[in-house]
Amino acid sequence: MELTALTKARAVELGWTPDFVARIEASPVMNERQTDNIVRMHITEERAAKYLDVIEANPDAPYARFTFKFANPPTEMGIYGKPGEHGLGSHEVNIGTYGHVPDQWPYENDTPLGSKPQPGAYIPGPYHIFSKAEVWADGVDLLYDRAIRERWAAATDIKWAELEDQPDEMERAVCQICTVFAQHGLSESKIIASWMEKIAYGFHDMKNFMATHVYDSDRKVEVLRKRALSNGGGLGQMGLGTLYRAWFGAAKPTDYLVAIDVVYKQYEVALFELLAEQLPLAVDRDIFARLAKDSRRHAEFGLKHLQYYIQYYPNGKEFAGHFLNKAESALADELNHSHVETGAITVALAGGVENLQKGQAAVRELRASQLRRYLDALASIGIDRAAMVNPGLVSITREPVTA
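Above: the chain's sequence. Below: its structure in C-alpha cell form.
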C-alpha cells in the first residue's frame, strides 16, 4: 500500500519519521483510510507503533479492522468553546455550524444539531414539528442556562422548620391558593411534556428549556402541596379548570405556548409577586417569591417566542390573534367563575375575615394590575391588544368577587 501525498504530509507534520511511514506502507494489515484517520486523531508515532505491533500480532482480531472513521466526520472540526461569565453554557458552545439552527429541520430522526446522520442507520423518530418558527425564541439557550443556575429544591431550600402558626382562616386561605396553583402546575407539566417529543431533535435548545419548564412546574406542585400539608391547613377544593381548555385543546405549539407562557403566566407572576410581598409568614413569602422568579422566566420565553413566530411564520400575526383570543377566553372564564380561588385570595389579602372589603379592593387592584401587565407585555413586542382584549378580563377589574 502507498499512502497518498496528503496523508504523508499530515504524518510528517505530526512528527512521524520516514522510516515509520515506510513501515506503515509495508504492513499487510494497515490501509490508507485507517492510517489517515489515525493521523487525524493526532496519534504520535510512539503510540501508533504500539497499535501497529498489536494488530500485526493479531491480524484476525476484530479490532484490527477498525477504520476509526469517527475521526473524520463531515462536520466542522477544531472548535473551542470558551467559558463565559457563568461557565461553559449552551450559549458558549453554540458557535460555528454547531450554533446554526436552520429554518426547517431536515432530519426526521435523532440527528443532533451540527452532526450528520450515519448512512444506513437513518430510522425516523416520533417528530413532526420541523419548522423553527413554530418553537423558537431568540436567546432560548441563555434562558436555559439561567434556569439551571436558578434551580432550587422545595425540600431543602425552604425553611420549613420556621413556619409559624397563624389564624385558621388565613391558613385555610393560603392552603386553598396552594391547592389551585398546584393543580395548575400539574396541568402545565403534562401539556408541555406531551408536546416535547413532537418537536424535532435539532431544536434542542428549546427542548432543553422546556424540560426546565416541566421541572419548574413539577416543583411548583411539590412546594405548594407541601405547604398545604405542613401547617394544619390541608388541601382545599380544586379550581374550576376551564382554563385548561386552551391548554389541552391547542393544535399547534404556539397555541399552547401563548395560552400558558404569554397569557396565563403574566397573571400568575402578578399574583405570586403580590403574595410574596403581603402574606404575613416569611416562609410563604419566600415560596411565592421563588415561584414568581420561575414564572417570570417562562413568561419571558413566551413573549420572545410569540415575537419570533409573528415575524417568521407565514400568517403568524393572524394566527397569533386567534391563539390569544382562545387563551384569554379560557382565562377569563376561570377567573370569573372559580370562586374558591377568588375567595381565598380575598381573605389572604385582607389579612383575615375582619376586613373583607379591604380584601375585595385588593383583589380588584390585583385584577387591574394583571391586565395592565399582560397588555404591557404584548405591547413590548409590538402587539396592541387593548382594544380587543377579552371583555371578561376587563369586567373582573371592576367587580372581581361575584359570589
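Residues 161 and 290 are 18 Å apart (CA to CA).
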